[in-house]
Amino acid sequence: MFKNSSITRRRFVYMGVSGLAGATAVAVGKDSYQMYQSQALDNLKRDFKVVGQTPLKKRATAKGLIYGAASGRDFLVSDKNLKTSIVRECGILVPENELKWDAVRPAPDKFDFTRADWLAQFARTHNMLFRGHTLVWYMQLPNWFKEVVNRQNAEKFLVEHITTVTKRYAGRMHSWDVVNEAIEPDDGQKAGLRKSPWLQFLGPDYIELAYRVAAQADPKAMLVYNENALEYSGRKEEVKRTAVLKLLERLKSRGTPIHALGIQSHLVAQEGALNAKKLRTFLSDVASLGLKILITELDVSDQKLPSDPAVRDRIVASVYEDYLSVVLDEKAVIAVLNWGLSDRHTWLSTFTPRSDGAPVRPLPLDSSFKPKLAWNAMARAFDQARKR
Ligand code: G3I
User: ω before 134 within 30° of 0 (cis)?
Assistant: First the structure.
């Protein structure tokens, strides 16, 4: 939702002062501000009309785009409604957790691909593309990592991991998030790099090494750098976008085999203003490096929205449509994936629950797998997108 927050604030000051007095007023003012804010976001004139029930993957393909979602293996095994919905709506699947270090490395000298293989087979059986997430990250490292990996052996572990995992699916992977979330300017490191074990053990060159090893193991896969918190117009995001751009420029200038940027797109309704111009400029800057762009983990948190599900659904749908209309305007954007497909299975239930205890509603399908206005918003964005 693109809103001019200074107008909103001015009106809030007016509402906060006029006709309200004392501490209560501030509290009421705050509530009325929240209501006002959500009213401002909840534009009743938007009907999110969409023609037909054509699945999102088909609407995306019609424009040369790929649409899909992340899912965990266990939910696909146990929930037949999720399985039906994923097969109907998605042209690409990414394992939510099954290809991370803690899932495939039970011991320093052991790999276990049982769960990841199941998902790779599921995608193949249902003619879906398959993408990998993620070969190098600072989170979800196995418990033994801290005791075993050090400055002397870190390169061996990194090269062995990337080679073994990437080779296993070589030729069958649409793309890999080779390195995930390597930038964190608040860590105070050179070039805004995140103070991860990989940086501490190997220095900044671990990133280039990762892409070169992955390219050697699977020359066919599109190799992606995946990052979060790039979407909003705050100072922190601006600094992060600049650091990511410089990293990509550096990698490209050294001939690193990197092909795309993944923008996670974990959006939060009613928090942080999206600035279309800044976001669009960033996308053009990335594209000008000859890189493609994937929207890799799209969801819209409704944690801060009023309790009424109908209001929340309209606001969440507005954020989906407004965000996608900007990003899909950039022809280098080739894929959009949700991080989950149905509200029944979303990481946000655990990670950012609502204070009123109401189930969160961040995804295109509700917890009964029925399309929501967010589904309409995505369908409309694909229908209105320029053909690639
Ligand atoms: O596998 C264990 C299980 O054995 C144990 O019983 C259970 C309870 O403790 O935990 C299970 O591990 C959980 C894992 O998901 C698999 O379900 C972890 O506790 C939990 O922290 C982990 O959360 C994942 C999170 O990444 C970790 O940071 C979320 O499911 C996953 O959606 C989320 O995904 C990340 C992307 O990889 C990167 N971008 C951000 C995105 C959201 O945080």
Answer: yes
